[in-house]
Amino acid sequence: MTNPLAKNIIGIYQRHAKAFWQRRPTNLFEQPWLDDFLRLIPTNGKILDIGCGSGMPIADYFIRQGFQVTGIDSSKPMIERCQQHFPQHRWIHADMREPILSDKFDGVIAWDSFFHLTPEDQREMFTVFRQYASARAALMFTSGPDSGEAIGTFEGEALYHASLAPAEYRQRLAEQGFHVVKMVAEDPDCQGRTVWLAQSQ
């Protein structure tokens, strides 16, 4: 049975968008992983940021490196903030689970967003990743360290997270033609994030 808290995620990021972008660290603790991701992408390549939030700091970093960014987020206030700050790029208010674009991208990233999906929805997302990925595209996402659900809090509301087991992530990636370039569970140099970096074959 699906945890009912999973249905609240979109509403939480709609209601508390301002609190999120005010609290979101902008010191780019993720930069080593972002740089590994960018090394797999052609210069001036196209990046799809799934769950882009306000665009800060990750999309902003990609833009400053000369990449063209398309962002998708289910929170309309987040997308409006992206449109305000980065008008030369493309920002789409949509649910990440719905493959609404026909474009192919050189890089696809779902940082701190994919892990809000239920296990069932995460399994379905690998076909979405494949649909968006060009040949040799980079794919990076964060997950939990092992199979299970975890409930955090944000602005006093329960915040749902879920993860598959590492072996299943590897299986799902392989089924869609991705090979794992690098994976670190609870990376101490990335504030404990579990990070997956893969590339399409």
Automatic annotation (TrEMBL):
InterPro entries: Methyltransf_25, SAM-dependent_MTases_sf
Protein known as: Methyltransferase
Keyword Cytoplasm among record annotations: no
Keywords noted in UniProt: Methyltransferase, Transferase
Gene Ontology molecular function: methyltransferase activity
Domain of life: Bacteria
Domain Methyltransferase span(s) in chain numbering: 47-129
GO-annotated biological processes: methylation
Organism from which the protein derives: Paramixta manurensis
UniProt keyword annotation of Transferase present: yes
